[in-house]
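S.,

As promised, the magnesium ion run. Input:
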Amino acid sequence: MRDAYLKYMLTIKNLHASIEDKEILKGIDLEIKPGEVHAIMGPNGSGKSTLSSVIAGNEDFEQTEGEIIFENEEISELAPEERAHKGLFLSFQYPVEIPGVSVTNFMRASVNAHRKAQGKEDMPANEMLKLIREKSKMLEIDRKFLSRSLNQGFSGGEKKRNEIFQMAMLEPKLAILDETDSGLDIDALKVVANGVNKLRSKDNSVLLITHYQRLLNYIVPDVVHVMIDGKIVKSGGKELALELEERGYDWIKTEKV
Amino acid sequence: MELKDKLVSSFLAFEEEYGGENDDLHNIRNQAIKDFEQFGFPGRKEEAWKYTSLKSVLKHDYSFFPKKNDSIEYRDIKEYLINDIDTYNLVFIDGVYASHLSNTTHDKIDVCLMSSALNKSPYKAVIDNYFNKIAPKNGINSLNTAFTREGAYIHIHKNKMADKPIQIVNFSTGKETAMFLQPRNLIVVDENSHVQIIERHQSLTDSPVLTNSVTEIFADKRAIVDYYKIQNDKSDASLIDNTFIEQKAESLCSVHTFSLGGKLTRNNLNFYQKGERIDSTLKGITIIEGKQHVDHNTLVHHIEPNCESHQDYKGIFDENSTGVFNGKVLVEKEAQQTNAYQSNNNVLLNDKATINSKPQLEIFADDVRCSHGCTIGQLDEIALHYLRSRGIPKKEAQGLLMYAFANNVLDSVKIPELKKRINTQIAHKLGVEVGFNL
Ligand SMILES: Nc1ncnc2c1ncn2[C@@H]1O[C@H](COP(=O)(O)OP(=O)(O)O)[C@@H](O)[C@H]1O
Ligand SMILES: [Mg+2]
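Predicted complex:
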């Protein structure tokens, strides 16, 4: 049962994280309410992907300080699969190619793992087929793709579309989309945005990580954050994205000082 | 008494009982037992046996001439056959032919018994031409030759296609005693002929079993031979498989070896290319655990120009299991324009598991393309994380990756039912569910 009094979907407090003893995240605070769409923008190397990896539980990174609270529960110690079962989804900036595992077999393993964690039986094969057809149609994914090896030989755009297809199958509570828009032409961008918008509801939240304002024309954010050097240095409404597009990031750096 | 002495001293009794009338054969056997006496079983001091010790499997008090066991019914063995398609079957129980479980033919092709072929006149020419011609003298081959009695005899006559696959299945049932079996197969495929063969050794008992099998295969011009070995035996059963393939011009031969069980398995697989534009394929999947041991010892002898060989062996080793890959490619001076590929990739799932992988390329021709690659590693952590991020628990994600790693070896399996069967066995072994298609 969804907590009727749930105030925040995700609360991040003073999050520090490093890789190979190099500190990347230097104290992040973030609050996302159910139903909200937040965007994080920032220059390359500022730590956006690191933040999404740490939230998703990537064990390459060490969380040295701070809390990650997902639906009133501290999840810092949970394995990536446990975080997924709770309703967290990360669309990877660089989806991994896995030769020999077909998209459908992978998806079935994923959906059934989620169901198992919820104490449910495996989804019957015909239901699974129906769901796969429906969601792949929505994302205009060719049937042939589904029997191919996961991400292997997919173009950049196909990989991203495949990530959103997975998201649509799993219907997460919080979807983090890490540069899902890069590598997409305008038509593909619309298809992907449509997939994300279908997921939106008063109970679901989205965290968009992007370089470009253009995605935000289709998925309109409630809050825009600017991340520089492992910190969120400015937050504002959707107009902030336009301003960043126009003026770049340097003015914020100066403003900060 | 040592096993070697026991074998030598029982040879006379064997000749008395099963020797038959054929004088040439007597001579071959007598020479072979002398050779065995001289060579004995191979030891670790021999380079080719450095990583495989037979000590633990030679220590049992084996019986060599088990009683005929008529109690086995089709239902007892059904699961070990590819039973959802029509096939010729040669079923042997404790080394003795089981006619009630077999399905042979003499219609355009001969699928029958070595014992008949060795003793009956219509087969004499083929036996004279091909029997014991390519298995080199050494302890284990000569031992098998000395005790040659039974096995598969398959002859596909010129321009014929075997109309269905042939299964050769050797069961062992020795209840109280350990058993030593020595099947001997001869497969002759004439010009322009095709055959597909599935071979399996399966123990139905918990007593120790040691099988020393020798198979000689001759593929004449433009013949196509696809041979599949299923090695998924019980943990007390060991196998020394010795397979020799002579190919003539433009023939295509492949051997796939699936090693998913058994105690100790040694595969000596040898290809001799005697003609131009020959293609040889050697593939294997090894997935073992516990204290299991699988050793692939391959040789491809490129003798003439314009030929190819393709080797692809994948291994997954868990717990204390050990693997060996020793792949020798020999390219003679005359064998210009040879393309020889070899790859051996391994995943160790445990600190205690080991693999010794040793490619040996000996190339005397100058215009050739030869490549070999060998990897030993763990599973790809990045891929593992990706799967886990999609909610797939670590163990299952590892299984999926292992499945994916091993599975592409199956792409070249030409019998769909066999492919499906092996695929399912591998998936089951790795704890993954696959085979879901739109
Ligand atoms: N796996 C890694 N190993 C070492 N350094 C890394 C790794 N991943 C990211 N970094 C470093 O962390 C910093 C932030 O990278 P990242 O989070 O990818 O930034 P962004 O997504 O904002 O471009 C960069 O300096 C990058 O080099
Ligand atoms: Mg990034």
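Chain A has one domain: 10-256. The radius of gyration of chain A is 18 Å.

- D.
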